[in-house]
TrEMBL record:
It comes from the Bacteria. PROSITE patterns: AMIDASES. The lineage of its organism: Bacteria, Pseudomonadati, Pseudomonadota, Gammaproteobacteria, Pseudomonadales. InterPro entries: Amidase (IPR000120), Amidase_CS (IPR020556), Amidase_dom (IPR023631), AS_sf (IPR036928). Residues 82-488 form the Amidase domain. This is Amidase. GO terms for molecular function: catalytic activity.
Length: 504
């Protein structure tokens, strides 16, 4: 079929939006010249899309009743079985609901996407199924993944398994809650500002944000390509390392990947902490909202690692704070361009595009008033930066990000792992439905002070549970060199073997 052609009047109006003026005669002449391009569009319109083949068999799914979903952690339930054998045979998995599972609805926590059903599987899904895992459904995630709290999802707030009415963290809220509650063995999360590690800290799970580009993001709805990470959330270290072995590696379709270095992560699990060089990051303990009880638990965990033979010493990386600041122009302008104006895809990259998802995401414009306050805030900052300063601060921040990475790299020449609190606070109560915008946003962003930096620098970072305060979990964050996830697993496994974190 032929695509719509503009009239001369429409072309004149279009030219005005491009800051040009066309006379009626000029518009008519340009329209004639444009026909060759439009014929190319017609050809593309007639061709079938070139995407992965959908599964041959249907995948029945259903929205669970509230009585079967007390944590509001499930968006949709299903049972998609993988290969009969493999590294993950017999393991059950939940997928964050920004990950495409063909034939099963995907909402990304946001009403504008309600009703969208992916036509093909994300790469991580294909790899999980080939490794023998069974996908039990889609885990609730926060509104367009723009919250470290768990009160922003349009389906319903996700409850912390340790205390109903409290935050499970975000934006991979349902993923961590389901693992912590024992409803699945493992889950896949996404991380652009801490969204794997924050819910892991609040819920008491093991959450790995791998090196940027190690796990392909193909088939996962983007926020900002230079910040997008995907990784495993599990109930123990071994499952996490095993899952990363399945997920890691290039797929040839994700521009975030540049020759990722894959390792045998499970081989690090029995090496112990003896001889590990651990740097205690001073800046990680200087957050204004650091709860001293959280600091005490984290310091006790560090002392335990020292007692296991690790060499522990303080270290300062001043650029840790800088990297957190860089997140604002990169994250806000980037997501405004790619997620919103670019309809979840954006431009200028080669790889696999989900055209149907792009078409669905266009609809946010008719429901913009219903976007979450945390997303609106980021969009206001991003749009202002784009309009007033034409993206110069995004560009400058990307340049300066190399300095922040270099500062981490320099410290990591002397230490195998840097440690700090994952989040500065304990899980907080959900804000009331009639709360102010300020309270809503505070509950969404108050916990990202340590986690956003590694999304800017791309370093692998892992949250591990290290104790309880008033019955709520505390997370210890480990950071390593690019593609040194094995060292994180080595330290995490040594700590895990030394004690049950629930008794600490």
């Amino acid at each position: 079929m032929a695509i719509d052609r503009p009239t001369a009047e429409q072309l004149q109006a279009l030219a005005q939006r491009l800051h040009m003026h066309l006379t009626p005669e000029q518009a008519s002449e340009y329209l004639t010249l444009m026909q060759g391009s439009f014929e190319a569009y017609d050809l593309i319109d007639e061709l079938p899309d070139y995407t992965p083949v959908a599964p041959a068999s249907p995948r029945p799914s259903h929205r669970p009743a509230s009585s079967d979903n007390p944590l509001n952690a499930w968006y949709y339930r299903c049972e998609v079985s993988g290969a009969v054998d493999g590294k993950l045979a017999g393991r059950s998995v939940a997928l964050k609901d920004n990950i495409a599972l063909a034939g099963v609805p995907m909402m990304n926590g946001a009403t504008p996407l309600e009703g969208f059903v992916p036509g093909f599987d994300a790469t991580v899904v294909t790899r999980l199924l080939e490794a023998g895992a069974t996908v039990l459904g889609k885990a609730t995630c926060e509104h367009y993944c723009l919250s470290g709290g768990s009160h922003t999802s349009d389906p319903a707030p996700v409850h912390n398994p340790h205390r109903h009415g409290y935050a499970a963290g975000g934006s991979s809220s349902g993923s961590a809650a389901l693992v912590a509650a024992g409803q699945v063995d493992m889950a896949v999360g996404g991380d652009q500002g801490g969204s794997i590690r924050i819910p892991s800290a609040f819920c008491g799970t093991y959450g790995m944000k791998p090196t940027h580009g190690l796990v392909p993001y193909t088939g996962i709805m983007a926020i900002e390509a230079t910040l997008d990470h995907a990784g495993p959330i599990t109930a123990n270290v071994r499952d996490n390392a095993l899952m990363l072995e399945v997920l890691a590696g290039a797929d040839g379709l994700d521009p975030r990947q540049a020759a990722p270095q894959v390792d045998h992560y499970t081989q690090y699990l029995d090496r112990g902490a003896k001889g590990l060089r651990i740097g205690v990051l001073r800046e990680g303990f200087e957050l204004a909202n650091l709860d001293p009880r959280v600091a005490d638990k984290v310091n006790a965990a560090i002392e335990r690692l020292a007692s296991l033979g690790a060499q522990v010493a303080p270290v300062s990386v001043a650029e840790h704070r800088l990297a957190g600041a860089l997140w604002h122009p990169i994250g806000c302008e980037g997501l405004t361009s790619q997620l919103m104006h670019g309809n979840g895809a954006g431009f200028n990259w080669k790889g696999l595009y989900d055209v149907a998802l792009l078409d669905k995401q266009v609809g946010w414009r008719t429901q913009a008033n219903r976007l979450s306050p945390s997303l609106k805030l980021c969009m206001f900052v991003g749009q202002y930066g784009l309009e007033r300063y034409h993206g110069r601060y995004y560009a400058k921040a990307q340049n300066i990000a190399r300095l922040a990475r270099a500062a981490y790299d320099q410290a990591l020449q002397h230490y195998d792992v840097l440690v700090m609190p994952t989040v500065p606070i304990l899980a907080q109560p959900h804000p009331p439905k009639d709360c102010s915008i300020s309270e809503y946003v505070a509950r969404a962003l108050e916990m990202i002070g340590n986690t956003s930096a590694q999304d800017i620098t791309g370093h692998p970072a892992m949250s591990i549970p290290c104790g309880l305060v008033d019955g709520l979990p505390v997370g210890l964050m480990l950071v390593a060199r690019h593609h040194a996830e094995g060292l994180l697993y080595q330290a995490a496994a040594a700590f895990e073997a030394s004690a049950d974190w629930r008794t600490l």
